[in-house]
Design brief:
heterodimer, A: mainly alpha, 2 domains, B: mainly alpha, two-stranded antiparallel sheet, 1% strand, globular
Chain lengths: 162, 493
């Protein structure tokens, strides 16, 4: 039953995406090259494939049942790490790499150590994660900035104070 | 040819060259042996920084990672019963039995030698075939290339077992996302929704970092993956002379299976190794022993797995059509350096092509040495603590995304690709048709439109040119087989 719902939901999403892209493709200009179908052809092709798939999924959803993708608990954990990813992007934009990297490394390392190193005490895990995050940030800085001469984000907020 | 081979060997014999190969081989072995990760993960992470490397040496590094990872997959399979890579699933069935019986060295030794035996001839075949195929490829027009792309995508859709509609959803989605940015023919900007960042399209590297690296770590955390801990003691390498002698036919047949299936787009090692295993089991005199610790059950998938390395390189180098996801990454490294793979590659950048072959062979020797000398270290390989590895992968992948796009937009794309990957997993949409279509999309569109532009009779010409027609029919046949097969089995029932 859940599978039926899932496929129908996918069908609706796919149809919405197809309609969205088809609408904006319609607004594109045409080409001057003779015989060339123009820039609209490819996105229209994608929209048609998606629309057909959407209709098939709505009309004839897969009947076979499949195991759950993630349990409720797993979903919570996934949401937590995804939240950290989003926070990483925001922090990198405003605070730059040097501030963001050690914080994210510390948090993620601490979270993972709870699973892969359950025998260690909380204090030991914090200390190890702290040392790890500083060491990895320094190593990454050396590799990217010193060795590869790469320009890493310096942070929009921090720029204001300079 | 010999000239280029010697030249690339000379480059590899320098201190830098040896270090690239050594580091690549060991990193590949480590990532390949760790369940959940693979050489592909480290390659994706290294893609953004490869632009700082010498292009030829970057290819050598990536090839050595690929070889190391392909060979390292058997370590997890044999010692833990958990395959390190998808190509080592079949090795688990018999390999782990040896560990349970207290003799992992026999299985590991046979696997290590078979990895080497599978790799070298497959590279030699690829070297010969690439040249011939590229010479043919130069004579092909946009009609044939468009038909080839169509055929490759159809073959990958065919892999969406059970639900081809979802394979098509992946294709449609890839076509739409690939349409964003500048049109490859007349340069007009499309579907950017006013964002300057999207003018050059959505970079495939940013997408791969999200789909493979960021999503992988997220799922590992969600599923509370503890990593592997083992107390198994592994002794020194033991030459498996007798095992190899008893399995000569097995080795030859498995090699042919691996090399041929490796050549076909999308199928790759997970399919070929299972076919080789099943085939050899049915032919074996001691078939009742298979699944309970038969050395033939380790030899067949390991030879087959490595035989596919050369096979997958052929369409990528000679025609610009990637055989699997790893070859997509090789194409991405080339594109970072402004090089396009395809039939002209052998003429414009022969140094790069031959470096790939030489690096593969040298890396195979390095990996063999590392595996034979370092066999007692294997349990340490697979016990690497995840809480030190995964956070670094996240930060490196986001840094890589930033460097690829040159702005935070790249990291946003990676996070969105991670969310897309999760949604695809939730709805059981296969990723392979999506990523293959995405990498081929621009080539396909360019060739279709050029063909229409050059043609005097329009679409008809796709069907009147023999090579183009063969590829179109082959693609349609692959799709038809998957539609007809269930109907036939229904009728039989």
């Amino acid at each position: 039953m859940e599978k039926l719902k899932k496929d129908r939901l996918l069908g609706i999403i796919v149809l919405v995406i197809a309609a969205f892209f088809a609408y904006f493709t319609g607004k594109l200009g045409s080409t001057n090259f003779e015989g060339d179908p123009g820039p609209k052809m490819f996105p229209y092709m994608g929209s048609i494939i998606m629309a057909l798939c959407g209709i098939i999924l709505l009309v004839k959803p897969e009947k076979k049942e499949k195991g759950k993708f993630l349990s409720r608990d797993e979903l919570k954990h996934a949401a937590l790490l995804f939240g950290i990813y989003v926070l990483f992007v925001v922090m990198m934009k405003y605070l730059g790499f040097v501030v963001t990297a050690p914080i994210v490394l510390f948090v993620v390392s601490f979270l993972f150590s709870k699973i892969s190193d359950p025998g260690a005490t909380a204090r030991a895990r914090v200390i190890r994660s702290l040392i790890y995050s500083v060491a990895v940030t320094a190593a990454l800085y050396l590799v990217y900035v010193v060795a590869l001469d790469a320009k890493l984000p310096s942070g929009a907020l921090l720029k204001l104070f300079r | 040819m010999l000239n280029y081979l010697l030249q690339s060997l000379g480059t590899l014999c320098s201190f830098t060259g040896i270090m690239y190969i050594l580091i690549g081989s060991i990193a590949g072995l480590l990532f390949g042996s760790l369940p959940g990760l693979s050489g592909g993960t480290i390659m994706v992470l290294l893609l953004p920084i490869s632009y700082k490397m010498d292009p030829v040496l970057a290819m050598a590094l990536f090839m050595s990672i690929h070889i190391g990872s392909t060979c390292g997959g058997c370590i997890g399979s044999i010692l833990l019963g958990i395959p390190g890579t998808s190509g080592s699933i079949a090795t688990t069935w018999d390999g782990y039995e040896f560990t349970k019986q207290g003799d992992p060295v026999r299985a590991l030794s046979a696997a290590v030698v078979c990895n080497f035996i599978g790799t070298i001839p497959s590279i030699v075949i690829a070297m010969a075939a690439c040249r011939t195929l590229a010479n043919l490829g130069v004579k092909l027009g946009p009609w044939e290339y468009a038909a080839m792309c169509f055929c490759a995508v159809c073959m990958v859709i065919g892999l969406s077992k059970g639900n081809m509609v979802k394979g098509f959803v992946g294709v449609g989605l890839a076509v739409l996302i690939a349409s964003i940015g500048t049109d490859p023919i007349n340069g007009s900007v499309r579907l950017t929704f006013g964002s300057m960042d999207m003018y050059s399209g959505v970079n495939v590297i940013n997408i791969m970092l999200g789909l493979y690296a960021a999503k992988l770590i997220l799922l590992e955390y969600a599923r509370r993956s503890r990593g592997a801990k083992t107390n198994i003691k592994v002794r020194r390498f033991k030459w498996p002379g007798r095992d190899l002698k008893d399995n000569k036919g097995n080795m030859i047949r498995s090699f042919v299976t691996g090399a041929f299936i490796g050549f076909l787009p999308g199928l790759g090692a997970p399919t070929s190794t299972v076919i080789a295993y099943a085939n050899e089991k049915s032919l074996a005199k001691d078939s009742e022993k298979w699944g309970h610790g038969a050395i033939g059950g380790v030899i067949a998938p390991e030879i087959c797995n490595n035989a596919g390395i050369g096979g997958a390189m052929i369409p990528m180098l000679a025609l610009g059509i990637p055989g699997d996801a790893i070859m997509v990454q090789f194409m991405a490294v080339m594109s970072i350096h402004g090089i396009t793979s395809g039939p002209m590659l052998m003429k414009t950048n022969p140094d790069m092509v031959y470096m790939l072959f030489t690096a593969a062979m040298v890396a195979a020797i390095f990996v063999l040495l590392v595996q034979t000398l370092g066999m007692p270290m294997f349990p340490k390989f697979i016990s690497f603590p995840y809480h030190y590895l995964y956070p670094a992968i996240i930060v490196v992948s986001f840094l890589g995304s930033y460097m690829t796009a040159g702005s935070i937009f790249g990291v946003v794309v990676t996070v969105c690709a991670c969310a897309l990957g999760l949604a695809m997993d939730y709805f059981a949409i296969p990723i392979m048709p999506f990523i293959m279509t995405y990498i081929l999309a621009s080539l396909f569109e360019k060739n279709v439109r050029q063909a229409m532009n050059f043609s005097l009779v329009g679409v008809q010409e796709f069907f009147t040119r023999p090579v183009s027609l063969i590829f179109i029919l082959a693609g349609l046949a692959v799709l038809a087989i998957h539609f007809v097969k269930p109907l036939i089995s229904k009728v039989r029932e």
